[in-house]
Every structure is written in C-alpha cells, then in structure tokens.
Amino acid sequence: MSIAVYPGSFDPVTNGHIDIVEKSSRLFDKVIIAVVHNVTKKALFTLDERVALIKESTGHLDNVEVDCFSGLLANYLYEKNAGAIIRGLRSISDFEYEMHMAMMNKRLIPEVDTIFIIADTEYVFVSSSGVKEAALLGGDVTSMVPPQVKAGLEQKYRQIRG
Ligand code: PNS
To answer: What phi and psi, each to the nearest 5 degrees, are found at residue 99?
Structure first.
C-alpha cells in the first residue's frame, strides 16, 4: 500500500492545501495529513482546532487521515511506514526552502522521497499567513478557505477585538 504524509502547520488549512490533498489522494492509497506540534511557533489556532478544521474540510476523501506529530518528521514517517512526503509548490520563491527541507529529509530517511505538487493557479497567492492578515483586517476570504475555517477566523478575531 502506498502511504504519503502531507506535513505542515496548517494554521489554518486553506483551499490551496485542500487542492493539494485532493490531488495527492488520487496518487496514493493513503494520505496522512500531519499537523506539526511546534512549541516554539505561536499559532492562531490550537493543534486540536487545526486538526478538527482539516477533518471537516476533507471528509469527502475516503483515503485521507488527519493526525499530528511533534519532533522529527523523519521519525514520524518511519513510524507510519510512509514512502513519500507531499509538499505543495506555489511559486519559485517556495522552491529554495522546500528543496533544502527535501534534501535534509532525504539524508535523515533515504527510503522516503519528497513529491512536490503544483497548486492550481487560482491558489498561487493563497497562504495561511495572508489569509489570517486579510481576515483580521476585515477582508473577504470566502474563496480562499473552507467555510468552517472562515467561521473559525471570524470567531478568533471577534475574541481578539473583544
Ligand atoms: O507548513 P510549514 O510550516 O511550511 O511546514 C513545515 C514542516 C512542519 C513540514 C517542517 O517544519 C517540519 O517538517 N518540521 C518537523 C521538524 C523536522 O523534521 N525538521 C527537519 C526537516 S527540515
């Protein structure tokens, strides 16, 4: 069985991520979306909230699971018996960072390859950080995130504004 892991912060998941998941689910028997638990990085959504939002947004895909991990991705890949890491590429500016990460992971776990998937052009500009900033400033992010995420952003920013 071919198993791929799609790791990331997903703070929050965007329609660009969902596009990559849908494409991956057609290429692999099982895709595990692995949300990183990074204690040093301040996230808007908690780990549990990020996992729940992804589950709600990928319920239509039978071979997709949502999980979280902490520590080294290579160890998690080994545990899950994964053969591939999925990463989305939007533009050439993503490439340098992604290439270094792929090479590092290749050295750490040589039996796993990183597969880059190009997002559809309509998602090229969509990033979690851009979506958070736009939503905070009152921009309409309807076309950029799943409806549950839009509602989650509205709720977070209502709490912050008080
Ligand atoms: O969505 P992001 O923030 O670009 O995802 C980055 C992520 C989570 C894939 C990366 O930071 C990661 O793999 N972290 C786990 C720690 C690790 O294994 N580091 C060594 C590989 S460079």
So the answer is: -65, -45
| CB of 128 closer than 6 angstroms to any ligand 1 atom | no
Radius of gyration of the chain from its Cα atoms, rounded to whole angstroms = 16
- Chain centroid, CA 51 distance in Å: 10
8 Å CB contact between 49 and 152: yes
Pairing status of strand 30-36 against strand 64-69: parallel
Specify the ligand 1 atom closest to the Cα of 41. Answer: 3
Task: Give the model's pLDDT for residue 70.
Answer: 96
3-124 classified as CATH 3.40.50.620: yes
What number is the average pLDDT over the span 105-132?
96
For the chain, the domains span 3-124
pLDDT classification of 130: cutoffs 50, 70, 90: very high
Are 58 and 20 within 8 A, CB to CB?
no
Distance CA 65, CA 98 (A): 23
**Residue 21 and residue 140: Cα distance in Å, rounded?**
24
Give the model's confidence band at 41: pLDDT under 50 very low, under 70 low, under 90 confident, else very high.
confident
The reply to whether 60 belongs to the active site is: no
